[in-house]
């Protein structure tokens, strides 16, 4: 079974697989393009000489500069943490669509603040903008998969949710290459570093415009008692009349699920949290959280944000060389993600992919670490030639990427969507 395989739970009219559901999923997936781009471009932008000159990085000591960069990066993660927490509340009270609009607007506001930074105003606007952008990204990262899954016919749900992961990698690919582009085609200037910041607004703007057109989730509307509106939207999405037997069965299934939820969990904002009193739910919650803990413990976020520093540490010199190597890292991630979606996730299973990814990735990192211990790179060297050891370390870095991506990059998200029952989810 692959990405293009249809596994129907019942006979499905061909009208159900229409352009509307695909377009809605694609528009919502601009959220993941925004997330992917933001996770990729910022680290290389910090390394642009024009950015360093604009904010006078040369006046900082090495330790102070490292702390400053770490703070600018980490406030984004802090914003994303609180944004993801708030997503449950907005989804419950105002729905999926308006939640996406709210979080996207906050992201755009944050991106606009970053564009207002300069040498006179300092980095304060960048830091504040990163907090707001992170908050928006955190909310969107929760809302988008939920929205797509609730809008999709069962047979293509996995395919359409796969758009989310693919959008993430496409955005990341652009983010990893954009600074290589501006560094090779433009001289050092304020415009050089503002272009990568400005490109954030492209997928976010498309998402906001798309949210003005896409409908609300029918499942949420049914849960709020807005049945007539839910029926109209579901009929439009499935391209079927409201009295069609397929549509009648789907609406009955949604309402039965909601009734089961109310009976087993209860109605109200706080009721779902009562599920944590169940020992089995707590164990699954622990397993799911552990997967994300180990995913982040792999170092992927450090690589995304500090990739120029990573490549310099294994011997690469020159801004363009490190940016080019970072771009290739993005290409490897994107290509392997496509292979994962098309061939691996449903053929090899979740557990085997995680095991192969962990073992292969660990061996690659052990080699790189051993090389740096045995033959440390001279940070003050101006030579652009690479030793055979540095070439091998770069190769193992890309090999680590090829092992990490089909396992710990996407599989934890898939497992967490599968290990909980509908009520707990």
Automatic annotation (TrEMBL):
GO molecular function per UniProt: carbohydrate:proton symporter activity
Transmembrane segments: 21-48, 68-88, 100-117, 123-148, 160-181, 193-214, 285-303, 323-345, 352-374, 386-405
Key word Iron present: no
Cited InterPro entries: MFS_dom, MFS_sugar_transport-like, MFS_Sugar_Transporters, MFS_trans_sf, Sugar/inositol_transpt, Sugar_transporter_CS
Topological type in the membrane: Multi-pass membrane protein
Assigned keywords, A-Z: Membrane, Quinate metabolism, Transmembrane, Transmembrane helix, Transport
Entries under SUPFAM superfamilies matching the protein: MFS general substrate transporter
Boundaries of every Major facilitator superfamily (MFS) profile domain copy: 24-425
A GO-annotated cellular component: membrane
Domain of life the protein comes from: Eukaryota
Places the protein is found: Membrane
Pfam family, one: Sugar_tr
Family: Belongs to the major facilitator superfamily. Sugar transporter (TC 2.A.1.1) family.
Protein name: Quinate transporter
Organism of this sequence: Zalerion maritima
